[in-house]
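DM between two lab members

TW: hey, do you still have the Recombinase family protein entry open?
JB: yeah, one sec
JB: this one, 199 aa:
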Amino acid sequence: MELGYARVSTTKQDLERQINALTAAGIEPAKVYVDKKSGATTDRPGLQALLEYARDGDAIVVHTLDRLGRTVRDTLNLIHDLRARGIGVRNLADPIRIDSSDPDDPMAQLSVVLLALFAQMERTYTLERAAHARQVATAKGRRTGRPSVVSESQLAHAIQLRDGGATISEIVTKTGLTRSTLYRHLPPKPDEPVTVADL
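TW: and the structure you got?
JB:
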């Protein structure tokens, strides 16, 4: 029996493209397991349910191999564990097609290693490109990341209250900002003068 697995890294991402590809490949929707969780861990509810359900002779079908794991090691370990249980892995959309139902096929083994390596390299390069883009934007004075939930007037009011001796609880009540937001945005309090030279 073929079982499908689809994964995206966050709840804001959409699984539809992967699910459509899996059902178009003939997998019943009831046999497609899904996760909206990072591939950094195998502790994913959909993956765990799939692994419990899969039996000797079954094949797990994924859109691309990187849906199984984020790193080469994780992906290879998972495929090795599945192979030991007699469960194959097949992909649909990678440039190299794999079918690990024959564990002794050296080409299938090489394909799995190459695809896992390419997926990990792509992730590394994506992170590097994003970090570089943030550095360039910061150097040009542009703010990166999510829009701030704190306006300049709210922050100025919070600083004024803090410098006037208000506690964090009082600042939270008076500004309507959460405690974590205040800790994230309030600049450090200036050091108290220690000597006359510090005045």
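TW: got it. The longest helix spans residues 106-139. The two ends are 78 Å apart (CA to CA).
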